[in-house]
Specification:
- There is one protein chain.
- By secondary structure, this protein is an alpha+beta fold.
- It contains ten helices and seven strands.
- Strand 6 and strand 7 form a beta hairpin.
- The protein starts with 5 loop residues before the first helix and ends with a strand.
- 31% of the residues are buried.
- A seven-stranded antiparallel beta sheet has the order 5-2-3-4-1-7-6.
């Protein structure tokens, strides 16, 4: 399990569910401390629905840490209560990225690889992967509440440094997307006075932008 990435840990659990459930005590021990974060990322960070039968160990462990009582509160209310009392770090994918112009793979990055030598393709590829990883990790990311957003007062906007501009020595932030509305609602209502969140770009995979943010 990737304990630094609640969304990735949840997706890994879903992909390897049968294997993990063969070792229930060990799996529960591994995920116990981040089970709340995993459940939040899977249930409210993504668009896909998740039910207790999909990830029973995660649900059981998270419900225990949340102190969730379905007879007197909803799951959303349980998360709000928990986030009010605790500081947690979650990884969440962005939505609405198609409405903005932040480009995760600008042409200028491809041009930097044009002069690769075939004689050392493997070594060069390793260096490129590491350099690219370090470069993306260096990109400044801001996660900011938008209480005056005309469409959603709970909206949370994510801006990331423009890659091409940074390479050209003229760094600047650009809108990249939003946190999913339901997740944003829970985060904003749990800590309404918090407008800016400590954050970083967690990863980009399968065309999906994922940020890590402290709640």
């Amino acid at each position: 399990m990737n304990v630094g990435d609640s969304l990735l840990a949840g997706k890994l659990y879903l992909r390897r569910r049968k294997t993990f459930e063969k070792f229930t005590p060990l799996t529960r021990y591994i995920i116990e401390e981040i089970s709340v974060e995993i459940l939040f990322s899977l249930c409210f960070g993504r668009m896909q629905n998740v039910n207790p039968n999909d990830i029973p160990i995660v649900f059981d462990s998270a419900f225990e840490r949340l102190g969730f009582d379905p007879s007197c509160e909803t799951l959303e209310q349980a998360f709000m209560r928990y986030f009010k009392k605790n500081t947690v770090t979650v990884t969440l994918p962005l939505v609405g990225t198609q409405f903005y112009y932040w480009d995760s793979e600008p042409e200028i990055l491809e041009k930097l690889c044009d002069n690769l030598s075939a004689e050392d393709l493997f070594g060069a590829a390793k260096k490129i992967r590491k350099t690219k990883h370090d470069f993306y990790a260096s990109l400044k990311t801001t996660v900011q509440a938008e209480p005056y957003n005309p469409h959603d007062v709970n909206a949370i906007l994510v801006c990331i440094e423009n890659i091409e501009a940074k390479i050209c020595g003229n760094p600047g932030m650009e809108k990249a997307g939003h946190i999913r509305a339901l997740a944003a609602k829970i985060l904003r209502e749990s800590k309404p006075k918090k407008l800016a969140y400590k954050s970083e770009l967690a990863r980009i995979s399968d065309g999906q932008i994922v940020v890590r943010m402290e709640v």
